[in-house]
Write a structure and sequence with these properties.
The protein is an all-alpha fold. Helices cover 71% and strands 2% of the residues.
């Protein structure tokens, strides 16, 4: 954002060189000498050297003009400092907002990963429970259905029938279902031989 003020226009108009008194149009807004030669003379203490050739009234007028230019330049510098401070503050706020967004994103990812891990643990627990139910029902030569397994697990809130049915389908697809049935039948065979 560029702030154009009255002080800016005052310092960008023609004014007298601080050393030789020649009127010039400044190429920079804080320029007070007309050339590099006058700038060197100013550094060596040659300010207002041209006033010696003027009448007292003209000297007062020139001094007043230079004092007004100095005030305008000071106002302009203060405005620049204020604008730079505001820009610095806006940049700092943008950086902090970006850091907050990145932190929220990272924390959101961590929380999402934790939720996924929790769901994976629950799913594994469901599969293990359903596998145990399949093996037990096979051992008892009972009908292996989601309702029978749900009755065996006896926790309808933790193991709803539809989740048990999807776990059974997953076990059938992976071949674990047949393994568990075979394990249950083998346990039943072992139990029969123990009774003899």
């Amino acid at each position: 954002m560029i702030s154009v003020t009255i002080a800016y226009f005052k310092v960008r108009t023609r004014h007298s060189c601080r050393v030789c008194g020649m009127r010039f149009m400044p190429s920079r807004r804080d320029q007070i000498t007309c050339s590099s030669t006058c700038r060197q003379r100013l550094r060596r203490g040659g300010a207002f050297a041209y006033l010696a050739d003027l009448s007292p009234r003209e000297r007062v007028r020139e001094r007043r003009d230079h004092a007004a230019l100095d005030r305008d330049l000071a106002d302009l510098r203060q405005e620049d400092r204020t604008l730079r401070a505001e820009a610095r503050q806006r940049r700092q706020q943008r950086r902090e907002a970006k850091r907050r967004d990145q932190l929220a994103l990272v924390l959101g990812r961590v929380q999402l990963q934790q939720q996924e891990q929790q769901q994976e643990r629950q799913h594994r627990h469901l599969l293990m429970s359903v596998a145990g139910g399949v093996a037990l029902l096979a051992k008892q030569a009972g009908e292996i259905t989601p309702a029978a397994i749900a009755a065996f697990l006896d926790d309808p809130l933790r193991f709803p029938e539809d989740e048990i049915a999807s776990a059974l389908a997953e076990m059938r697809a992976s071949g674990e279902y047949e393994d568990e049935v075979a394990r249950g039948v083998a346990m039943r065979g072992d139990a029969n031989t123990d009774m003899d």
